Amino acid sequence: MTRPTPETLAHSARRARTAAEAPGDTDHIRPAATPVRPAPAQVSGAGSLVRSLEALGVDVVFGIPGGAILPAYDPLYDSSVRHILVRHEQGAGHAATGYAQATGRVGVCIATSGPGATNLVTPIADAHMDSVPLVAITGQVARPAIGTDAFQEADIQGITLPITKHNFLVQEASEIPRVLAEAFHLASTGRPGPVLVDIPKDVLQAPTTFTWPPTPDLPGYRPTLHPHGKQIREAARLMSSARRPVLYIGGGVLKAGATEGLRKLAELTGIPVITTLMALGAFPDSHRQHLGMPGMHGTVAAVYGLQKADLIVALGARFDDRVTGKLDSFAPDATVVHADIDPAEIGKNRHADVPIVGDARHVIDELLAAVTAERAAGRSADLADWWTQLDDLRERYPLGYEEQPDGSLSPQYVIKRLGEIAGPDAIYVAGVGQHQMWASQFISFEKPKTWLNSGGLGTMGYAVPAAMGAKVGKPDAVVWAVDGDGCFQMTNQELATCALEGIPVKIAVINNGNLGMVRQWQTLFYDERYSNTDLGTHKHRIPDFVKLAEALGCVGLRCENAEDVDKTIEAAMSINDAPVVIDFVVGKDAMVWPMVAAGTSNDEIMFARGVRPVFDEDDI
User: Fold this and answer.
1) Number of domains composing the chain
2) Of 306, 299, 255, the residue nearest 279 (C-alpha)
3) Which pLDDT does position 275 carry in this prediction?
4) Is 387's pLDDT higher than 90?
5) Which terminus in the chain has less CB density within 10 A, N or C?
6) What is the CATH number of the domain that holds 358?
């Protein structure tokens, strides 16, 4: 018998769930079911696959056909399920992720075997890190050929084992309805995540009988939704007596649909709120109690609020290294209440004094009741001094930026005006790098599901296909992708998909001619030795983004000075029958501030280059 490795055990722990799931508790993330023919029907395995998707309420899938998956494309031709033909399988995966993040429903992508399946690995890993409900369906070589290194064979089940919530290799056509139902249930319940379904070609071709609904068989999978009452009461007691508490809010609050409850809890307690990169929009940026984003490029008030807190109430957050900085120096005086639906996250990075396993919506609702009881008994915290200190920090160290010394366009100004013109109802999708951080800082996020980005994996190339998926899921919303010139060149081919499919996304390319975040690190930590970060999009204009946009069937615009920013954005806003790309040519040396250098303590936050915040002895 093979002994499990520590890595296997760790992965199993993450996937484990306990206690019973109450019916209907996860309806907010389940796909809507649609009626199907009640009588058994003789179909192929491929027909059973497509009928299963219809029965699960799937309205759109993103994919590319190929040899092993081709049998599925014949019944798909007559299906009510819309198929969007992407230009690269990575685009299919990110589009499905963007769809899922914007709608809360399961995103679906399809690819063939071998390279088709392996091209999905990055978006699957991305969805895994950010807990996105995704089902990836891949073709596989016929069962007799598995393990023979057949043409376009890859063990995608084995490859994706560490980056999926679960995965399946279907062995019989009769299993397809049950496996699809289980895949969607697993992806959308508990801690959401990606599930892969790999189907051999001969299984797709085999005759079978389709019946619905199937009987799921998931022994041991019972996510805990309702928290333990004793832990809730202890958390409420601590919240009612702390002198320097903070609410540390992660993406789990958004996924649980708990934003209204969060606002009520914050206003009831008066506790400062800090939202992570994945939680922007969970609590209004404009709310007086919002300190901003924590971590490497967080606000000074948020970073120091966490660092000097005596109580951290973490809801749906995982104490990521980008938030904590050097872990052993993080929040040394804080008692930690950690609530998460995934028991494997609690205590993984930071010891939890009060561990709470449960869905964030139920945790917050029960905290509201428990805190109300505390207040009725005359117990509530006096936070006046704490707020005086935090307000002083906000006033002395607000987010801001300096104009470029060479007179070039400031990227922060572009992004700030984009947010102000497009407004809080637009959906903003960011790539990864400086532009992502500036978007998180200078766009005001007032509503849930209006900010999409690749947080955990940090995937360059995410923005364009994810924006496409978001626009498909929310066709009436204005969808802006804020991308960098480096990210944009990785997946911009999906703009051809948008043009042909009638998906009018809008792309703001923040073109600084460089891999901007890498250049920033080279400036700060490598003596300005700019090794391989100049992309040539400034000096040589290769590619010319306006001409590239036009070649891909889009409207191309360019803006190079501050006077033209507003009218260029407004021109893009007026075009709703085609994708639009704006090439914003900005300064190459703009930096993201504040900054906590990787591996250092949050106490060492820099407000600007060479500038550390200065605190009086009486400060926090």
Assistant:
1) 3
2) 255
3) 98
4) yes
5) N
6) 3.40.50.1220
Residues 6 or more apart in contact with residue 605 via CB below 8 angstroms: 300, 303, 304, 594, 595, 596, 612, 613
* Claim to verify: residue 537 and residue 572 sit in the same structural domain: yes
Tell me the pLDDT tens digit for each residue of 578-600. 999 999 999 999 999 999 999 99
CA 79 – CA 6 distance, rounded (Å): 45
End-of-domain residue from the set 210, 241, 267: 210
Q: Which of 367, 396, 425 is the last residue of a domain?
A: 396
* 439 within 8 A of 431, measured Cβ to Cβ: no
Verify that 105 and 159 share a domain, yes or no: yes
Rounded to whole angstroms, the Cα distance separating 508 from 466 reads 14
Residue whose tokens read 């001969």? 202
- 488 and 516 share one domain: yes
Residue 13 DSSP SS3: helix
Q: Grade residue 609 by pLDDT with cuts at 50, 70 and 90.
A: confident
Residue 35 tokens read as 């009626």
pLDDT at 285: 98
Who wins on pLDDT, 606 or 283? 283
Q: How many CA atoms lie within 13 A of 448 on its CB side?
A: 20
CA distance 353 to 347: 9
Examine residue 4 and say whether the peptide bond preceding it is cis (omega within 30 degrees of 0): no
Beta strands in 238-326 (DSSP E): 245-249, 273-275, 290-292, 311-315
Residues 6+ apart with CB under 8 A from 467: 98, 427, 429, 452, 479, 480, 481, 505, 507
The Cα 110–Cα 279 span in angstroms is 28
Q: Is the predicted pLDDT of residue 478 greater than 90, yes or no?
A: yes
Question: Which active-site residues does the annotation give?
Answer: 89, 151-152, 201, 517
Residue type, 389: Q
Count the helices and strands in the chain (H runs, E runs): 24, 20
Q: Which CATH number characterizes residue 527's domain?
A: 3.40.50.970
State the amino acid at position 173 in one-letter form. A
Are 133 and 247 in a shared domain? Answer: no
DSSP state of 344: G
pTM for the model stands at 0.93
The first and second tokens of residue 534, run together, are 């100049």
Please state, in angstroms and rounded to a whole number, the distance separating the CA atoms of residues 128 and 133. Answer: 9
**Under a CB-based contact definition with an 8 Å cutoff, are residues 136 and 194 in contact?**
yes
- Structure token pair of residue 54: 């219809």
Give yes or no for a contact between 208 and 45, defined as CB atoms under 8 angstroms apart.
Answer: yes
My answer on whether 383 and 437 are in the same domain is: no
Q: What value does the mean pLDDT of the chain take?
A: 93
CA end-to-end span of the chain: 56
Band (15; pLDDT cuts 50, 70, 90): very low
Query: Do residues 53 and 175 both lie within one domain?
Result: yes
- Shared-domain flag, residues 274 and 344: yes
What is the strand order of the sheet 506-511 is part of? 451-453, 427-430, 479-484, 506-511, 580-585, 555-559
608 occurs within a structural domain? no
Starting at the edge strand found earlier in the chain, the sheet holding 194-200 runs: 82-85, 60-63, 107-111, 134-140, 194-200, 166-169
The letter for the amino acid at 445 is F
Tell me the three state secondary structure of residue 141. Answer: coil
36-87 confidence digits (pLDDT tens): 545 678 999 999 999 999 999 999 999 999 999 999 999 999 999 999 999 9
Say if residue 298 is in the same domain as residue 442: no
What confidence tier does 612 reach under pLDDT thresholds 50, 70, 90? confident
Residue 616 lies in a domain: no
Q: Domain of 43? A: 15-210
